[in-house]
Amino acid sequence: MGIRDRLSGNEAIANAMKQINPDVMPAFPITPSTEIPQYFSQFVANGEVDTEFVTVESEHSAMSACIGSEAAGARTVTATSSAGLALMHEVLYVAASSRLPITLACVNRALTGPININADHGDSMGARDSGWIQIYSENNQEAYDNFIQAFRIGEHPDVQLPVMVCQDGFITSHGVENIELIETEKVKNFVGDYCPENYMLNPNETIAHGPYDSPVYYMEHKRQQLEAMKNAKEVILSVGKEFGEMSGRFYDFFEAYKLEDAEVAIVVLNSTAGTAKDVVDAMREEGKKVGLLKLRIFRPFPGEEIAQALKNVKAVAVMDRHEGFSTIGGPVFSEVRTVLYDLPNPPKTISYVYGLGGRDVRTIHIESIYNELLAVKDGKDQGEAYRYLGVRE
Amino acid sequence: MDKRKTCNIDPQVNWKNISPGGAITQSGSADLFKTGDWRTMIPVFKEDKCKQCLLCVPVCPDSSIPVVNKKRLDFDYDHCKGCGICAKACPFGAIDFIKDEKQEG
Amino acid sequence: MSNLTEIRWHGRGGQGAKTASLLLADAAFNTGNYVQGFPEYGPERMGAPITAYNRISSAPLRVHSNIYEPDFVVVVDETLLSTVDVTAGLKAEGAIIINTPKSVDEIKSKIRGYSGRMFTIDARKISEETLGRNFPNTPMLGAVVKVSGVMEEKAFLDAMEGSFKHKFATKPEVISGNMAALKEAMQEVAK
What we know:
Low-confidence stretches of chain A: none
CATH superfamily of chain C: Pyruvate-ferredoxin oxidoreductase, PFOR, domain III
Shape of chain C: globular
Shape of chain A: globular
Strand content of chain C: 15-25%
CATH class of the largest domain in chain A: Alpha Beta
Radius of gyration of chain C: 16 Å
Order of helices and strands of chain C: EHEEEEHEHHHH
CATH topology of chain C: Pyruvate-ferredoxin Oxidoreductase, domain 3
Helix content of chain C: 25-40%
CATH class of chain C: Alpha Beta
Radius of gyration of chain A: 21 Å
Number of domains of chain A: 2
Number of strands of chain A: 15
Oligomer: heterotrimer
Order of helices and strands of chain A: EHEHEHEHEHEHEEHHEEHEEHEHEHE
Low-confidence stretches of chain C: none
CATH architecture of chain C: 3-Layer(aba) Sandwich
Number of domains of chain C: 1
Largest sheet of chain C: 6 strands, mixed
Strand content of chain A: 15-25%
Distance between the termini of chain C: 29 Å
Number of strands of chain C: 6
């Protein structure tokens, strides 16, 4: 079962792309996602894929080319990071509202400024309202698995939305780790052919994309787009299950790690979740009932499911690798706290902003959060609910 | 979601039936959208002066000069917005361009 | 407990410390381990100090932070000893391996505050003798495997031979030189 290998997160994504053999890839390089189009263009040059690789002059053009290509009926992928995703921002909305299931590998990096190239979720968090499905990945394996599933989710007739698959810049994108690849035939069968109902290169019917939408129609379109995002939930679950049956690795909205009987919990996404798992195991050995909720799907936000998973814990820390400047906590925190509000006995919640601009997150940091939560559980005054982890005071 | 089934530009359409992404899967659907009442000026076709050179036809931005059997007919006033380009293009003075007195009621 | 080994590499941009960490990850992977090999990115400039890391274990690896309490430290460029605190957090029962023509006694004074084992190796000399050029990576790799015992030596050499055959498929003449560099380093690494 599977092919044992060791790859960086960027190599894993490029490898998934090679196995899927998409029709078109418009891309513009930016650290730390540069290696993805770099490796992939080698596959194109070597004739290992049939993909049309489009070199463009900016990320705005890359996403615009993705839109044209996907609307034409071609399965289209791209990759970017940080300022590249920011430059795509305007066009991300066009892709989503035009209901074009483009797949984007987002290698998370801080936005300027001050200028910084390291891991931070500011880029994808800034795109959270763009109408894209967002999937987050703990490691290279999950980046690979999520990228393969993204096509089935986005292209599903009930969804038809673009998907971005996120992983932490450098930490997983450039770190080489063990990975189990799936045989190419299996990947191809799982992903299947892209057969849109309507597409612009269909000679038998006409279609026009992107007309002006007056106030009479715009709101109905947004409501319908919301329905597609809601529909994505069921599709994400069924695709995750089917993927598990193929690979042995099952996927849900989130991974509940030792959460069943936990008294306190941390909510976190991407690579820090792995670090937190080691802490959970170590503290469990000391008899401390700590658990972890590793969020995988941020858009659509699995609110009810999160509330159910956290309903019995006494204190929760929600970690954000992004500063949203709301002054009331990070974006993941705000949404998690929102869904906990209607519980009969909601847990105490603390927002931790951490790891900005690649600040390293160690097991001792995670352990300090759990110890704080355990103290709050035992009656310590919660104190400031909006905190910075590892900042110099 | 089949866009063909839901291509619907009726202002009463609800969110369930509106065309996903606003895509239009019906050719010539602009015909359904009447723009004639946008006119403040109106072209008037004087058939007796017309030589059927058809220079007016390609310059009309709204395809509002119907041609049948290589001859132009009177204007399609449901869609003509009254821009006056046809009157400028006509070498024979066969198109007058005058203030549009709208019908009351 | 799993048998986790954590290694930290210190080098300068352009010397290949990152490549060395990836080669070690490769060899450990090929001998059946779970591995991590990752650099810490700072200024991407020739000569700037860089750090790279390895975790090697029989169990899956989940931690995604840098390594602060390494079992072994490898210094690819001895000039770093005066500017970088290379032994920071290094476990007393671990060891440090330094690329230098000097002996341990000669270099000891530069490693303050570390009481554990020290090894030196003249990777430049070995590389120039076996490969004809200064590629310190290969000898350093042999030295760290020898000192750390992170892999069984024969399995390591077999795995490396396989890697070199793959990597140098178009110039097989360099395979024997690289293998010689590894073997000589494993013999020469001196306490």
